[in-house]
Structure formats: structure tokens, C-alpha cells
Amino acid sequence: MNVYRSSYLAFIYFLLKKQINFMKELQQLTKDQLYNRLKNQSEDFYSVTTSALDFSLFEDQSLDEEDFSEFLEILDQETIEKIKESSLQANEDELPIIILSENESSTSLNLVTKDGEGYKVIVFDQDITLSGDLFVEDYIVLIVIGNIQAKNVIVNGSLYCTGNLSCNILFGASGNDNETYISGNINSSLIAENGQYTVAKGTIHSEYLISFHNVIEGKSGKYIEKTILDSTDEAEVLTPEILDENGYFEEESFLNFIKNNPPDAVFK
Asked: pTM higher than 0.90, yes or no?
């Protein structure tokens, strides 16, 4: 059974990698061009987004002459310049691709990278409205200048949105490496994280909340109508179908379960 399941998941992942997402790439942006676009948004959104990008993707690793002063003293000027040039070129090769895109799908949108492609920043200067799911892979930073509406929003990478987010289920999981930041409000039936800082500058309105390894925060208020699970007693609250053999939350089982079940079915 485990072999069959592993093969099935591998096949689904292959299809996900190969499928057409109806995302039209309009223009490749430089870091400066991206930051200039973000300056037109709120000061808070600009600060949060650029600080995160600078820390995680654009960290300056250029050669510091002061740090290597003793080493540089024994080299001639031509060699020093070649070392600097080589260092800068290496940094440019490692920088993520930044793509200004246009969503042409009204059903689902799966944002993934190709094998060996590295990190990618995808910018949508428009609302995202889907009848199906929005999926953000762990190597993707998605920036939406507008609102997001979808069935389920699954974030393994980072998501930054200037507007509101509305969905049945919002789920984030990245081993606490990434974050979901919404400038407006979050409205959902279930909001959950398994190692993903999730925050709305506005309010969060949801029927259910699950938080295991980070924080779900509504800067202007958090209103949960029914169940809040923010401790380790998941076996007492959650359906066994999304737990492992030891009674702990299992992410793969959860993601498979919500494809065919409503949010309230997650709970006993």
C-alpha cells in the first residue's frame, strides 16, 4: 500500500510539474524595477516585502575588501579586480528570476519551478480569482498587487498580497522558512499553518484555526467562530484520516483529504 501511494504521489507531482498553468510571462524585472513597483503600494507592504526579499534572496555576498585586506595586500591590483569581478558575476548567477506575469486561468493556478531553476519571484499586478486552488511551491515568492479569491490556497513558499484573501482553506507550511502576509483581511472557513508565519494586517475571520509550529496573527483582530487548535492534542480534535500512526498531524494526508472533503470534516 505504501509503495502504491508513493508511486501515485510521484505521478501526481510529475503532472503538476508538467501542466500548463495559463500564466503569461509579460516581462523579466530587475530587483530595482521590482522595488520601484512596490514603492507605489503602502509603506508597510513595501517594508515587509523588501526586507524579507533582501534577507532571504538578495543578501549581499559581494567581496568585502576590508575583510580580506591582509590577503589583498599580497596581490597586484589586476588580480584584485579579477577576483571582485568573478565574485559579482557569481552573485548575479545566483539571483532569483523576477517575472511580471498575467494570470489567464479562472480555475486553478499551480506555481512551481522547473528542476534546477532555483528561486523565482512571480508578480501579478492584478486580482487573482479562481474557482479552484492556488498552489505556491517552496521555491516561489508570489507577490499579488490586488485581491486573491480561490477555493483553497496552499503556500509552501512565500505569499505577499496587497489586498484581501478569501478562500475555503488557507494552509501554509515551510519549516518556518517562509511567510504569508496579507495587507488586507483574511476570510476563510479554515486557516492553518504547520511551520509558516501567517499574518493579516487587517482582520482574520474564520470558522476554524489550526496552528502547530508558528503564529497566525490578525493585526486588527482575529475572530474564530468554532474550533481553535493551537496545541499538541490533535489526536483528540482532528479526524484520524489526517493523522499518522502515532496520532500526529500528517501534511500529505491533510492535503489529500481537503481535495474531496469540506473544512469542517477535518475535525471530529
From this structure: no
